Structure formats: C-alpha cells, structure tokens
Fold this protein.
Amino acid sequence: MYKSPAKPGWYKVDGENVYLDSKSEAIFIRRLVRNGFSGKWRRPSGVALGKNQYTPDFELSVVWNGQNSRAHVEYKSTSATEFEMDHRRRALAALHYHGSNPLLLLYVNKTKRWYYIDHTTKHVINCTRPTPSSLQISAYQPARSRVPITNKYGRKYKSDTKAFFGNKIADALEFSVKMIFGSPKKKRKKRRK
C-alpha cells in the first residue's frame, strides 16, 4: 500500500473538519484564517479535462484591483513549474472563463510566493500577496451551474441548464419515435421487398 508523504486527511480549519490534500495545506489555511481571510475550504465544483476531474483547492474572499473578489486558489508545495507543466492550468482557466469566478491564484509553499494565472494567455505571473476582504465568502452568489458539452469543436459550457436538458429530452424523444415507428426510409425499403 502506498502512503503519501503529504498526509492527506481530515483537518480542523476555522472550526470545521475539512478533507485536505496535505498537512502543509492545512497549516497554510490556518495561517490565512489568522490573517483575516474568509474562505470556503472545501473544493469547489470541478471542470472535466479529458478523463481527469480537476478542481482548485479552495476559495478566498480577497481585495483585488480595489474590488472585492472571490478567488479560486491552487496550493502547491514545491514549485510553480509543477503546476505550469500539466494541464491543470487550462482546466483552471476554463473554470474562470466559463464560470462566474473573477480570479485565479496559485500559492507555492517552498518559495512562499503568490502567482496570478492569466486566463487569456494561460501563463503563471508572479504577484503580491492578496489582501483579505471585509466581505465574507458566504456573501458571494454561488456560481451558476455549468453543463459541459464536448463535441468535435472541443469543450463548451452552457449556463442555461433548463434549455440544455430541454434539448436533450427533445433529442431522446425524437430518437425513440424513430426507433419505435421507424424512419420513412426504412418503410420504403420494406415495401420494396
């Protein structure tokens, strides 16, 4: 059996038990709480990228460019290149682009540095430490539900779930009618025989 050196498990953070990836992540989140940050320490809903489900580690309420913002934060223990090399930054950028999240941040514990992930260029840029917002994380509106649709042009997201499911139900009804009664082409073939 493989034992992770990161020690994932349940940790007490801000008065609640939360499942986190590592002990160092729990220590970092406790430090954020002591410095006045408000956040959702559970993982937000994820973005599918191929076969992998990816979600950022937690959400923070921060002041960014003079405005209160909800930030999705990815925590890495060793290096930013570890994050840059894989496909997670694309998934995180997709989460920003298709969701209602205005800000993407990365924190590297070894260097104690914060990085901003630009969703347009998908580059990781060095930035200063964000300042805590006076607005609690619970005051933000929940992100709208997004339905991923994969077609030959790539992955798209629909925020109007009623229209999406309505179209899917109409497609299913059309398919079932064709299966039960057959298409006109099949009927013509049967008559010729």
About this structure: DSSP finds five helices and 13 strands in the chain. The CA atoms of residues 38 and 61 lie 6 Å apart.
